[in-house]
């Protein structure tokens, strides 16, 4: 049973968690370089929801730190290449690849971590407007593809034990996912750079 009945919303927690993970990845970036994210994801409505978001954020950071040790994965996030197709479609391909073998709490955590790292890389590449796109796309993917599963599996409150276990072991990601992340980063960077150049000249 999901925790919706206790005045706690799995949807609000998920959206706030995505925003929290992205903001955590951007914490060392000067605030003037980051677009405001608040209107793009709903805010939590109670201290209980905030506590859940804070705890989950810590677990995702631990899992993310383990992924950071995976050089091949980090190279994929750092990679920039050229790809055809919409940025949203490229993002969705990466997300679909994360969940190719089914949805788990660990894979949800990895997707949120990837969103945070991509946001950081876009700011680093002087493409801060892409941070909003990444947040919107991740929230949309969460609502359309993950929220029902989360509710069916008892809500975020039931994620703690699996995420705690996940944070104790290395997160394994396959090589096809690496290449998709490279393609997505490349498409996002190229598209955002063109948009940025056009807006500078208008």
What would you note in describing this structure?
It contains 8 helices and no strands. With 202 residues, it is an all-alpha fold. The chain has one domain: Blc2-like (Apoptosis Regulator Bcl-x, Orthogonal Bundle), CATH 1.10.437. Helix 1 packs across helix 2 and helix 2 packs across helix 5. Pfam families: Bcl-2 (PF00452). GO terms for molecular function: BH domain binding; channel activity. InterPro entries: Bcl-2-like_sf, Bcl-2_BH1-3, Bcl-2_fam, Bcl2-like.
CATH C-level name:
Mainly Alpha
Give the fraction of residues assigned to helices: 55-70%
User: Would you identify the regions where 5 or more consecutive residues have pLDDT less than 50?
Assistant: 79-83
Please identify which CATH superfamily we are dealing with. Answer: Blc2-like
In total, the number of strands is: 0
Largest sheet: none
Shape: globular
Return Rg in Å.
Answer: 16 Å
Name given to the CATH architecture = Orthogonal Bundle
β-strand percent reads: under 5%
The end-to-end distance, rounded to whole angstroms, is 53 Å
Question: Which class best fits the helix and strand makeup?
Answer: mainly alpha
> What number of structural domains do the residues give?
1
Mean pLDDT: 75
The fold-level CATH name is: Apoptosis Regulator Bcl-x
Q: With helices defined by DSSP (H or I, 4 residues minimum), what is the helix count?
A: 8
The oligomeric state of the chains shown is single chain
- In N-to-C order, the SSE pattern is HHHHHHHH
Family: Belongs to the Bcl-2 family.
Domain Bcl-2 Bcl-2 homology region 1-3: 60-156
GO biological process, one term: release of cytochrome c from mitochondria
Protein name: Apoptosis regulator BAX-like
